[in-house]
Design brief:
By secondary structure, the chain is mainly α. 90% of the residues lie in helices and 0% in strands. The chain has one helix and no strands. The longest helix is centred in the middle third of the chain and has 127 residues.
Amino acid sequence: MQLPRKAAKLEWNLNTLISLVQFVTIIGGVGWMWANTTRDIQELKNWQKAHDEYHKERLADTRATTASFNERLRAEEVRGNEVDRKIDNLTYRVTVAEQSAVTITTSIRDLQSGFNQQASDIKVVKEIVQRLEAAQQGRSR
């Protein structure tokens, strides 16, 4: 004897409802996390592109500044070479002036020596002349 089949009743158990809500929540949470993660990754990629561009600009600025500095340095080296030449020239002139001063000093000493000798010779001549005059006066009297 076969029992008649009863029509299946759609009965929902409390555990089934809780499991279904949990499943829907998990699916929704995964979707929300996927969307946030995708958005964050896109924002990071955009930031990275902007940051790379910033570094390219900074590198260009730094290279321009370095080139400008190198130009100024070369100009200063040229000016430094000119200054070195002027210093060498002035050093030469001072050396020549010092040598001239030494020569002049030597010449002045020689002149002083000659002058002193002439002065002593003049004194001797004066004494001789005085003796001759005295001898002539002694004869004339």
